[in-house]
Amino acid sequence: MLKYFRIISVVEGLSFLAILCVTLGLISREFVSYLGMFHGVLFMLYIALSFVVAKKKGWSILFWIALFLASIVPFAFIIVELFLRKESTKQALSVA
Prior knowledge:
Largest sheet: none
Number of strands: 0
Number of domains: 1
């Protein structure tokens, strides 16, 4: 589940940056509805997976709130990815 959350986290963060580029006029505005819908689905997946992973890993509600806040701050997905990579490595080492 952590692997899927890592993927969704990065893709959702990149889609958020794409939405910001559209609103700043750097990309054609005709893609707004498509990007918005795509980002909305990714955001809902991010929130659902973050809740499931946080519960499975035993993370506190404050940590889950930090994950949520990271989803609405541009470029914060990079910090989340670095943390999740470390967690993934820990998990792989504990299994081996």
